[in-house]
Write the structure tokens for this entry.
Amino acid sequence: GSGNNAMRGIIPRAVEQILNQAHLMQRQKWQFTIKASFLEIYNEELKDLLVHMDSTGTSTRSTVAKKNNKLAIKRDANGKSYVDGLTQMKIDTESADVGMEQLDAVVAAAARARSVASTKMNAQSSRSHS
């Protein structure tokens, strides 16, 4: 998940590497679009952890209608799997600093939306990881 410096998780570290590489490639006229989404599978149901974020990355509770949509895993004409209706947040590729700030906001929003009920099997630890 999140954290600072040595305590950062795999997602922030990986995205930082991707953004740095994208910045280098843009100098060679490459163009990139990076989008982030967070999905939780809980009690055999798909949950969009970013359903309450708007396109600017601001958390909002005004998207009640979107929350009620059932998510489903589908396949496109090329056989590629995707989750229909999953929120996707655009991550800036022009500036790695801005992109990382956006990612931090997305990870924080997803962490707040996670299901964290305890059970007899996981009273000490959750098996969910960011």
Remarks:
- The radius of gyration is 16 Å.
- The chain has a mean pLDDT of 81.
- DSSP finds three helices and six strands in the chain.
